[in-house]
Amino acid sequence: MKQIVLILSLTCLASAAKSQTVSSEDFKPIEGEWKGKLTYLDYTSNKQDTIDAWLTAKLRGKAVDFSIGYPGESGKGGKDRYEIKDNGTKINGMKIIDRTTTGDGMLKLVLEEKGKDGNDHKPATFHYELIIGETTFIMTKLVKFEGSDQFFQRNQYRFNR
Description:
Blueprint: H1 2-19, E1 32-41, E2 48-60, E3 63-69, E4 78-85, E5 90-91, E6 94-101, E7 107-117, E8 122-132, E9 136-145, E10 152-160
Antiparallel strand pairs: 1-2, 1-10, 2-3, 3-4, 4-5, 5-6, 6-7, 7-8, 8-9, 9-10
């Protein structure tokens, strides 16, 4: 009986570990052009602000290249690359800590990394939540400062097409 319990436990653990991976197939729905909004927490005023944004996503092998811009904000925006690494367990240096499907069938990924945040560059843990669907793409950055047990939302992109 103990052997059966052990085998079932190991099978569950292996299945949970496998589900925390991604492949380039997971990012196919976001390829193309998007329009939406960026909501961000201003470092100085500590108040939320929202501006229009656009996104272009292109798949390139095991990577997704993003171009982000803001209508009416010339010279602002930039490029980013999310590259799948370590057999799909990381994106860039961020570990995939959660992979689920939302109630409406979209893929939700949570990535984690350590760094510094705020005007005073305090040590922090970051969670990046990606919600990927055919007509919706949401990227949220959450921050938890060292010594705190609460995450707060630093910014969120909400794109639709």
